[in-house]
Amino acid sequence: MSTFFRRLSKATPIAFSHAFRTQSQSSSSHFRFPVGAIAAISGGISYFYYFSEPNLVHLDQINEDTGPKTALIPDKWVEFKLQEKAKVSHNTHLYRFSFDPNLKLGLDVASCLITRAPLGEDAEGKTKYVVRPYTPISDPDSKGYFDLMIKIYPEGKMSQHFDKLNPGDVVEVKGPIEKIRYTPNMKKHIGMIAGGSGITPMLQVIEAILKNPDDNTKVSLIYANVSPDDILLKKKLDMLAASHPNLKVFYTVDSPSKYWVGGTGYISKDMASKGLPAPSDDTLILVCGPPGMMKHVSGGKAKDWTQGEVSGVLKELGYTEDMVYKF
User: Fold this and answer.
1) pLDDT tens per residue, range 56-114
2) Which residues does the annotation place in the binding site for FAD?
3) Domain end: 178, 202, 229, which one?
4) Cβ neighbour number for residue 235 with a 10 Å cutoff
């Protein structure tokens, strides 16, 4: 295993005792929901954990004048080879895929890619596929590789497929799928609410802001998880917050450990009021997490997958549709 994966594995908490912690029963004063129950789209982070490997496996050499300038092709499935994989937490793994080292992947902040895997055959003998979107956590400007952080679920068809992958195996990918086009200083203050692996698009935006010396955007993140052991890349987030005064991070967990010093329970109106920027034309709130959290905090998307109305905690605090974006 390379230095990159050893460092990253050590930089995140790992719990070996259980895959999922049973949720506590709800009480009249404490609403609970399974923050870690469903994977959200898997955001951009590079810093010193991320660097190019000298022995990348890549696609055939592409003619510089006539070939594509990015590895992703919007309307075509492309095979990417798995270079390495590593455990990040008790139920989450990191996967590095490689391609031509002269190319960028072809993602903007914040966008995602689409993966597919074969899932048997239909009645006519044609291959059936499971398709899922993920947000890479590697820097969009990186060349020759991209990294996915994926939570493995016992009944997750795509995550189970990823869990069985070994270095040298390939995954079919296409994209990008643009979510929200981030531009420097588009808002004075961005608030973020993430649950579980919904942290990934938030990391993509955070990384873009912090690496740009001309971007003065303030960022306030509320990150909810089942337990302290489920917090993905906590040490990385803590390090970024400690070294960048424009980033503030608040954690809350459903099942705190004995020495836990962060928040406890669901994301309440009080947490959001204290941890997010107040509603204004210069404010944007990004939300990404499992359906239960989304419903409670912001309301889910509409049936046609458009943004839909804002409800829940954010509506109670006065945020409007143009101030909230749901991944």
Assistant:
1) 444 444 444 555 689 999 999 999 999 999 999 999 999 999 999 999 999 999 999 99
2) 132-134, 151, 157-159, 200
3) 178
4) 14
